[in-house]
């Protein structure tokens, strides 16, 4: 396996709920010899990508934070998304994310918590969020080239979190085909029973999906007006896409595929 791939695998194992890992854990999780894990982890610590906490114990290092700051200051997508994320959260009071697909994980690159008394926390979308049970994950899966998607579906862990979670690969594949055609995805009570998420694609100037714009909403509010929430994410995603140079000549910006024009006032 290429060194870059292995490094990526190691770094992805450090999460909010597992911020520190031991050599033995890494060895077991990656299926490599303890000696190989030891050499790899110590090498990453020397570069600053990891930081040694105790003999054989590591956390993400200062270089990760430094690179994150560089990305935040230079990434066109983050810059394009920032005002739209803030405006959507302010206007509608719901929790907003922009997320990319990093291997088999969601990678949130921008987000803002809603301001309603009853809402959803910002950490609902993270590297530990199951792709198949939230709108952003399903949206990004649906945008993958067919061959890549089929390979991923073969190894994706389709855990059933609620009665609504799709756990059959054939059913998920069918839903992803529908999502690709209609241009948005939602997941209603599929990860948590009281959570609904919906997402739409953010496209580059070339029309390629580069991220998902997502809303996370309490189920009780979402089920009252699901179309309005879908309209909001499509409009917001289109506005970010337009800032990146994309415009679909066949559909006015902010219009649901086959639907009415979007309005920022759809949801009070």
Structure report:
- This protein is α+β, with helices and mostly antiparallel strands and 268 residues long.
- It folds into two domains: 61 residues, Arc Repressor Mutant, subunit A, CATH 1.10.10; 169 residues, GAF domain (Beta-Lactamase, 2-Layer Sandwich), CATH 3.30.450.40.
- Helices cover 43% and strands 19% of the residues.
- Strands 5-4-8-7-6 form a five-stranded antiparallel sheet.
- A hairpin with a 6-residue loop joins β6 and β7.
- α2 crosses α3, α5 runs antiparallel to α10 and α6 crosses α8.
- The longest helix is centred in the C-terminal third of the chain and has 18 residues.
- It is globular, with a radius of gyration of 19 Å.
- The relative contact order is 0.10.
Q: In which range does the helix fraction lie?
A: 40-55%
Strand order of the largest sheet: 5-4-8-7-6
Tell me, rounded to a whole number, the average pLDDT.
Answer: 87
CATH topology value of the largest domain: Beta-Lactamase
Overall tally of structural domains = 2
Number of helices: 10
Strand % is 15-25%
Which sheet architecture does the biggest sheet show? 5 strands, antiparallel
Our measurement of the CA-to-CA distance between the termini, rounded to an integer number of angstroms, reads 52 Å
Encode the helix/strand succession as letters.
Answer: HEHHEEHHEEHHHEEEHH
| Strand segment tally | 8
Rg over C-alpha atoms, rounded to the nearest angstrom: 19 Å
The coarse silhouette is: globular
Label the CATH architecture of the largest domain. 2-Layer Sandwich
Task: Label the structural class.
Answer: alpha+beta
User: What do we call the CATH homologous superfamily of the largest domain?
Assistant: GAF domain
Uncertain segments:
259-268
CATH top level assignment of the largest domain: Alpha Beta
